[in-house]
Design brief:
The chain is α+β, with helices and mostly antiparallel strands. The chain has two domains: 43 residues, no CATH class; 52 residues, no CATH class. The protein contains two helices and two strands. The chain has a two-stranded parallel ribbon with strand order 1-2. Helix 1 links the parallel strand 1 and strand 2. The radius of gyration is 21 Å and the shape is elongated. The two termini are 34 Å apart.
Length: 113
């Protein structure tokens, strides 16, 4: 099984050769394309086999499961041993400060302080 943290960066074919071709992945579609046919020495294409195992998919690199927080009440439902919180992006400075203080009291890890 492939380690989910060790997959290659899938860059677009010929993006290293031409400045006008961006690096973001696009599927090779040419009828003579060696990448599309998956020839041995050519770049690798994204495939279902590169996916992470089901139990690791929602896990942050820190080892905690991510939980999105919208207000102070959501913070009380979090299990500090297994879950870390991410504060919703539209929450303002004052509410964010309150959430951070309460998280510190409850010893909950905040991923985006």
């Amino acid at each position: 099984m492939v380690n989910p943290r060790k997959k290659p960066k899938f860059e677009r074919w010929m993006s290293q050769t031409y400045k006008r071709v961006k690096k973001s992945w696009r599927r090779a579609r040419g009828i003579h394309s060696k990448v599309r046919v998956r020839e041995k020495s050519k770049i690798r294409m994204p495939a279902i086999g590169w996916g992470a195992p089901k139990n690791l998919r929602s896990i942050h690199p820190s080892g905690f499961k991510e939980v999105l927080i919208y207000n102070l009440n959501d913070l009380e439902k979090v299990d500090a041993k297994k879950e870390a919180v991410k504060i919703f992006h539209a929450i303002g400075r004052k509410k964010r400060k309150e959430i951070l203080e309460k998280a510190e009291k409850l010893k909950i890890k905040v991923l985006n302080p």
